Amino acid sequence: MIKQFFRVTSIEQAMELKQHYKENAVWMAGGSKLNATPTRTECCVAISLQGLPLDEVDWDNGTLRIGSLITLQKLRDTVFIPQALHDALGFVYSRHVRNQATLGGEIAARQAESVLIPLLLVLETELLFADGEFLTLEEYLQTPGDRLLVEVIIHDPFRRCATRKFSRSAGGWAVVTAAVAITENEEIRIALDGVAEKPIRLRDVESLALEGHALEKAVSEAIYPRADLSGSEAFKRHIAGVLVADLLTDCQQEDEVMK
After folding, report:
1. Which pLDDT score is estimated for 92?
2. Which of 38, 58, 155, 228 is 20 to 30 A (C-alpha) from 128?
3. In the predicted model, what is the mean pLDDT of residues 31-42?
4. What are the contacts of 227-230 at 24+ separation with CB within 8 A?
5. Higher-confidence residue: 50 or 154?
6. pLDDT value for 171
7. pTM above 0.85?
8. TM spans, by residue (predicted)?
9. Which tens digit of pLDDT belongs to each residue from 139-183?
10. CA 168 to CA 60: how far, in whole Å?
């Protein structure tokens, strides 16, 4: 339960408060996750970041740089963002939530139903933290820690890319989310969520450069999902394989349209 609430006006002030309260304090951006299952916090101190100027989108020689405190709706309304990113943001079906939730908060929450994280993984996104540290999103997901994220950096934002969510109903929890991208060198990037404890890149499958049924089979054999109320292990393997194969086809068709 949150018992103390601090609204900071600088990154330095935020870092000082975190250093003082340590594991008893939690960063608070839009606040859409801190009181909701399964991401409800047990911390008693909230450090609100809403006063920090970290909510802008900037283009830097073809690189897309996004402030971590931008809301999902503001990002979705930004002109010229990649279509795949626009689509992934739309899977957060409630506009009210999109107006509250932030990009940094979505990354930090690491929820299994996120479509955004697989997309950012196949775009090989880089993260900048308040202490000056740079990590790829993939590295961050391995050891997330309690860093203060300030910027999300996509060096190849218009990579051919597609993303999809499979759920039992339009507003239901995701069973599997997936994203596929094709690089300028015709290399495939594949990411999934909902099939492991954290979002994953299927690097071994990527290196095989497969398509169609062969790709479906390789994906299904490369993952080890847990059976739960959303489906059996076999069902999740099957859905993941089909999603990835279909998304690769979408990327290839996008290439044909561009030509």
Report:
1. 81
2. 38
3. 67
4. 230/168, 230/173, 230/175
5. 154
6. 63
7. yes
8. none
9. 999 988 888 999 999 999 999 999 999 987 666 678 899 999 999
10. 40
Q: Could you give the 3-state DSSP secondary structure of residue 245?
A: helix
Asked if residue 93 has pLDDT above 90, the reply is no
**What residue segments make up the domains of the chain, in order of their start?**
4-48, 57-154, 160-258
Alpha helices, DSSP H, located in 34-188: 72-76, 83-90, 95-100, 103-109, 116-122, 137-142
CA 55 to chain centre: 17
| 3-class DSSP assignment, residue 193 | strand
Q: What sections of 92-184 are H helices per DSSP?
A: 95-100, 103-109, 116-122, 137-142
Tokens standing for residue 122: 């196949």
* 57-154 fold: 3.30.465
Distances (CA, A) of 99 to 68, 74, 76, 132: 14, 7, 10, 28
Q: 102 and 57 in contact (C-beta within 8 Å)?
A: no
Query: Of 121, 252, 105, nearest to 177 (Cα)?
Result: 121
pLDDT of residue 131: 92
Amino acid 240: pLDDT: 96
How far is CA 196 from its chain centroid?
15
Residue 179 φ then ψ, to 5°: -145, 145
160-258: CATH topology is: Enolase-like; domain 1 (3.30.390)
